[in-house]
Fold this sequence. Notes:
Structural class: mainly alpha
Oligomer: single chain
Number of strands: 0
Largest sheet: none
Distance between the termini: 21 Å
Helix content: 40-55%
Shape: flat
Number of helices: 2
Amino acid sequence: MRSLLFTLILITFFGCQQSKETMDKPYVIEVTTFKYKSAVNANDFWKEDARIEEIYTSKQPGYMSR
């Protein structure tokens, strides 16, 4: 798990390198980890997650991508 987290951090760091023109714009990267409760079906979770992203998350001010 630590190696996966480290890899994701490296990808995020190198993937977010900015040019001089965009360095004055602040960006936030949010990383969330969690475990499913035993009563939660993973497929149902991801379907609901996609629906919430479409109807809510993607419409928030400052949202760029996921």
